Amino acid sequence: MRHFMGFLGCLVLPAALSCAAAVPPDTADREAALLLISTEALARGQAHARLRTLVTEHPGRLAGSAALAGAVRWSEQLLLGLGLDRVWKQEVPVPHWERGAPESVRMVPPAGSSLPIVNLAAAALGGSIATPPEGISAEVVEVRSLDELAGLGREKIAGRIVFFNRPMDPAEPDPGRAYGAAVDQRSRGPRTAADFGAAAALVRSMTQSVSDLPHTGGTTYLNDGRNIPALALSTVAADRLGAMLAADPLTRVEVKVHSRWHPEALSHNVIGEIRGTAFPDEIIVVGAHLDSWDLTPGAHDDGAGVVQAIEVMRIFRAIGYRPRHTVRCVLFTNEENGLRGGKAYAAMVRDSGEKHVFAVESDGGGFGPRGFSLGQNDGPVHERARRWLPLLQPLGILAFTAGRGGADIGPLLPLGVPLGNLLVDEQRYFDLHHTTADTIEQVHPRELHLGAAALASLIWLVDQEGL
Amino acid sequence: MRHFMGFLGCLVLPAALSCAAAVPPDTADREAALLLISTEALARGQAHARLRTLVTEHPGRLAGSAALAGAVRWSEQLLLGLGLDRVWKQEVPVPHWERGAPESVRMVPPAGSSLPIVNLAAAALGGSIATPPEGISAEVVEVRSLDELAGLGREKIAGRIVFFNRPMDPAEPDPGRAYGAAVDQRSRGPRTAADFGAAAALVRSMTQSVSDLPHTGGTTYLNDGRNIPALALSTVAADRLGAMLAADPLTRVEVKVHSRWHPEALSHNVIGEIRGTAFPDEIIVVGAHLDSWDLTPGAHDDGAGVVQAIEVMRIFRAIGYRPRHTVRCVLFTNEENGLRGGKAYAAMVRDSGEKHVFAVESDGGGFGPRGFSLGQNDGPVHERARRWLPLLQPLGILAFTAGRGGADIGPLLPLGVPLGNLLVDEQRYFDLHHTTADTIEQVHPRELHLGAAALASLIWLVDQEGL
User: In angstroms, what separates the C-alpha of B91 from chain A's closest C-alpha?
Assistant: First the structure.
């Protein structure tokens, strides 16, 4: 059993609310407060039901889409319904790319072969330019790395389709690390291939699983008119193409992409806050990103983070907690293909001179929490936070590691803001990352709600005791 | 990047194998050895494919069943195929209970009501006696605890069906703890109800999820001829019955169970070992249980542990590791309804005087590993083991906690053997525990293989350095 005495009376009696700000709570107080938070999150959690609504009504929330605009309205209404002290939107101009009609990749045996033409499961990478309507057909150059590509040189690449086929390392226990070690093929491969005169680029999907789901994602282009169409192949399709090329290097591939770039659109960061009782001008942020890739419901990425950030605010309201610092929920727009929301928020902070004492985000999927990464311009924030581990262990938080936040709050780092990132059990994450399979059915209610409890608990501790 | 130097040459060259026993390896050696283990487990892991075979060919491996006998043969053949130094079976007499034709629970409105009769999803508890063929029909007494039952007394209970309906606490973050706090209703409830003259017992399924899956499990009887039929209701069915009783306390329930007790059967613990080079008479056990409840494929419980224990042996063979102590894989029979396998193994150890230096088991499901519990008659083994955390952290092992082993190895505790238990992320476990839904599709290959890597790594460390 855990202690209920002490802090409980302070929390549930409105007349006594300000006592939270008077003195740091003792151990029994802290345990009682964190128990209130976790009980609210687990026994009366609303995040999973809200996530179902978000991904059912607003799937494919890519920048510029009606779905993202709908998610902006939906989340603003939710925050308004929580009775926060202030809810508003920050305007953010965002890029606007559309996939258009379904893309296709076909594997075409050389003339004279008796083998059939085979369709390969593929998804255009975000931002890919279109092919001509009749597609692009060419021989294929398979490489395992950008270095290998450079070694081949222009003569062997020009006019061909470059196929990046280095798998995410199956022996790497940490899928995020394996992703980081392979994703240069997707992020920089197509542009590098273009520089060598390639006609198009295919990239093996970023996953350790063997599956016929293509994983889209961002790729980096320059604005010089020399970009080329770029698509991800499922790992099954990549293995199949690799095997066919080994059997017959003259195998051709036909690629069709019908995407379109539109003028920039207007989107919004959605923001709600509870004003601090002792330090109203010092702000703690809990954030996530509202947008998703166009082809996915975006349940884990990052619908989960969105509903967790909202849930933190709901929990504080439900238990009657009045934070000492201002606690602000920031739902960023356009993380996936521009990071404009994160950059715009940091610019606002810089320009306004607002003081941010902590920002934490959830963008690793709604799986069971395991820890937090913490960092501040490489300061040892995570080491100081370890004193809280015994308090957070019941929620599955077993470690504080060094880190530098996530994508959305990353632009706050140069402003000296300590950043945190919720770490989760992510073995299943890269099975469905940026795919049509990132659905509500893959999100476990208790795992999602434990994450919300962990975020609320960490913010409570930072609010009460400082980092 | 990690170190490959040093230990690698020692491990892969057969001529140099014995050097592992000569001196404790230094840090780089340890990292290299553990990297060999995790690479073998993740890049070439066979546990998931083997689990698919086990649960497809031998589902419902309850003591006395042909399925369990098949699993005994299958696992013995697997161990023989690994080229271990010795593979054998230990004979174990086991109880033999059969469910028989499908059980049923019907909710029957009182005479004169216009409400329909409703079928409730139910599963006889393991060991339940049968009802008469025509069933038992009676009014229902709903209670939340054994204390409440005792307070009602014989007069209000005799002749009625007792319905234990206290949920596993939804606010408890640790599902295992919530299970432990609710399971007395299943384990002792029916017999206690029988002592007050009840006609039958219904128990709310042991899960925090809201689902129409009934969860079977063990219940404790006395051999005095006064036991009563006992069944689990799904949580949906339990809520439905509770609501109907609130509306009309005269609602009756009709229960049919067609189970049968047979004479004891013969089963086996399946055992395989690699002899130690330095201390062949000192034994390290890695264990799991072969049996499962009759109605489930038993993928997580405990097919996962079985294939992980086998995988530990395969990994050691594949990387050419010759342990200093004898490493023994023990696949226990009859954990679910008798623990005869675990008891027989401990009796053999006691009678033979074999020295066991460590035993570890995996029986918490094949989810992502998070830590180990360790204990030895309440000694601080887990504190000493914490020196290994930096080495095991890449596999997700973030904590060593105090523990007393699992069910199968528990009988070794009085013999002074230090015991370990693989701890996993178990939020999803009690959704499917003891149900038809405990299928291969619920087991993630990488999570399963990380668990095998964690077990092999801990055993390697204990073998090299002692606990």
Answer: 39
